[in-house]
Amino acid sequence: RDALIEADSANAETYTLNAAQYIVALGLLDGEILLAVDEIPGARRVLVTTHETFAYFGARYGFKVDSALGVTTEAADPSAGEIAELVERIKATQVPAIFADNVTNPRLMEQIAREAGVKLAPPLFTDALGEAGSEGETYLKMMRYNLRTIIEALK
């Protein structure tokens, strides 16, 4: 908001109002998520994803986060041993589903799901919003889609 106001002071009121409205919308979304995750039993609050893009989500909403690639999408594919370790962690937690994302090839997660004997849930939006008209076209829509997908897969 401040950078927009600095670049276009004639519309400062609009930027200030829009920012205030969006902050309220984000607060409401946070409340929705806090209530909705109560549908998932605590032991099932495990997000196994392609990479650790959900670390902040997990910390805020009480999920343990595990991943095949660590914190980056640029990492080389994991070794057979690393995959086997992840499969064992999935089996140990008895998580019912794991998640691919909308920006990486799902083959690795398909393989891990098969080996662990769990469902591969529909892909989550992660590092990029979806196309116009999709359920991930805005941040708020993306978060609600991801929330619904996570709840349906883990409850």
UniProtKB/TrEMBL annotation:
Q: Spell out the subcellular localization from the entry.
A: Cell envelope
Regions that span the bilayer: none
Entry keyword set: Metal-binding, Signal, Transport
InterPro entries registered for this protein in UniProt:
AdhesinB (IPR006129), Bact_metal-bind_prot9 (IPR050492), Lipoprotein_PsaA-like (IPR006128), ZnuA-like (IPR006127)
Q: In the UniProt record, does the keyword ATP-binding occur?
A: no
GO cellular-component terms in the record? cell envelope
Q: What is its main location?
A: other
What is the recorded name of this protein? Answer: Zinc ABC transporter substrate-binding protein
User: Cross-referenced Gene3D superfamilies, in alphabetical order?
Assistant: Nitrogenase molybdenum iron protein domain
Q: Which family does it belong to?
A: Belongs to the bacterial solute-binding protein 9 family.
GO MF assignments: metal ion binding
Question: What Gene Ontology biological process does one annotation of this record name?
Answer: cell adhesion
Domain of life where this protein originates: Bacteria
A Pfam family the protein falls into: ZnuA
Q: Which organism is it from?
A: Candidatus Thermofonsia Clade 1 bacterium
